[in-house]
Amino acid sequence: MRSYSGAALLALALVFLISGLALLRWELISLLIPLVVFLLLAYMLDRPPIIDLHFERRLDSDRLTEDDALHVQLRILNRGEPLDYVEVEDELPRGAAVLEGRNRFPLGLDRGEEVSIDYQIKLPGRGYHQFGGLKVRWTDPTMMMSKEATFPFESRVQVLPHLHDLKKCRIQPSRVRVHVGNITSRSLGVGTEFFGLRDYLPGDEIRRLNWKATARRDGPMVNEYETEKSGDVIIVLDGRNDAFVQAERDKMVDYEVEAAASLAAHFLKERDRVGMVLLGETIDLVPLGYGKRQFYRVMDKLLEVRPGIMKSPQGINLAMEHYFHLSSLVMIISPLQDQRIISSIEQLVNKGHEVIVLSPDEKSLKEKTKEVEGLASELAQRVQRITRRDQISELNRFCRVIEWDTDEQLSRYFMEGRASSQRLIR
Q1: Is the separation of the CB atoms in 20 and 35 below 8 Å?
Q2: Comparing C-alpha atoms, which of 88, 162, 164, 193 is closest to residue 132?
Q3: Which of 109, 234, 288, 348 is in Cβ range 3.0-4.6 Å of 273 for a Cys bridge?
Q4: 3 state SS of 381
Q5: Rounded CA gap, 14 and 66, in Å?
């Protein structure tokens, strides 16, 4: 492959030739001799080598959160001719930033020599990110010849949304199932919360004997515990947004995805069943499930969420009627920009669902966007704030509403969650 330097010399030689013939000046034509000799020697002495590399990329994880850095290790083995000098570039996902080391570097390799290179990158955001192959470029010392080769090796990384720490979240489903979980029930049975003592009965487990109480009384005594049950939680993510600025729409959906992912992770750790309804570009849902597999099913769906336009929210009611039952706790995450979502929430409450609404506050987001774009007027923002307050006041009549200032940690809004005084077992 000819380089730009070689092309420039050939163009210069052509200029000398045309100028010499046009002006009948043989001294100009004689200038072609050193140029031609130089190009011939460069072509004859610097033959492009055979580039045969074995390339391997190792990632410290194929799943990480938005806050994590990704460590990449390259192993390159030269199985071809010795390479005095080559430029190597590892193709990064679009938008990735190098934190430590570098993904483009010069390299010299003898035949059979192997090198290892490490660097760290930060991926741009949630979703799936694809690495490309390894690009190698050889150039001769005279810069007249060059050769490029690409060695494909694709790697895929899944970046999960940022997860807020909700360990102190006190929100629990009011209605529980017979399956074991972390919700304390009034009934007695298997559990960890001590309830009282009773006389030993045939069939009781020996490990439930209270030896101190037995020693104080004439007969054996056993411990009784409150049973621990689990519930069902449905998370509804309303990704519909009519913001004029695309960056504002994307940022609001990112906040909602963070909240949905954090709540799903928390309730799954509490051994509750979790399902999800997604309203965005399309309406999608995740049936109820539990455990680590369900967590990754939910994450896969959340990574695909994109802002949608204001379509009818009736998908919530249809999903609740066909896929979810009335004993579920419904957590709705919505910016409350559509009056129709309030009607849907009221219908869910009237049908007997326990509903909690988490609404990200857009005030700080709009102020930041206004400083950058200058598109939102102060009057329009005031009108929207008044409308939002009216909607929240209306919702507070029949369900609980949590206003989330996105500049604050989500965990502080759930530390004083209402714990229902009654537990119903179905």
Answers
A1: no
A2: 88
A3: 288
A4: helix
A5: 56
- 79 near 46, Cβ under 8 Å? no
Structure tokens at 259: 């909240």
| Helix (H), strand (E) at residue 183 | strand 175-189
Which superfamily, per CATH, for 53-160? Answer: Immunoglobulins (2.60.40.10)
Q: Give, rounded to a whole angstrom, the gap between the first and last alpha carbons of the chain.
A: 75
Nearest residue to 391 (alpha-carbon basis) of 369, 361, 414, 412 = 361
- Rounded distance between C-alpha atoms, residue 21 and residue 155, angstroms: 58
Residue range 292-302: mean pLDDT, rounded: 91
DSSP state for residue 15 in the 8-state scheme:
H
Query: How many other C-beta atoms are found inside a 10 Å radius of the C-beta of residue 147?
Result: 17
What would the pLDDT profile of 302-351 be if each residue is shown by its tens digit?
A: 988 888 765 666 667 777 777 787 778 899 998 887 777 888 888 888 88
Question: Top-level CATH class of 230-425?
Answer: alpha beta
The yes-or-no answer to whether 53-160 and 230-425 have a common fold is no
Q: How many CB atoms lie within 10 A of CB 167?
A: 9
Q: Which tokens go with 424?
A: 């119903």
Tell me the residue type at 260: A
In the block, tokens 């609980």 appear at 400
Task: Please report, to the nearest 10 degrees, the dihedral formed by the alpha carbons of residues 92, 250, 374, 244 taken in order.
Answer: 130
The SS3 assignment for 297 reads: helix
| pTM for this entry | 0.69
Residue ranges covered by each domain of the chain:
4-45, 53-160, 230-425
Spell out a b/e string for 111-135, using b for 16 or more CB atoms within 10 Å of the CB, else e.
eeeeeebebebebeebbebebbbbe
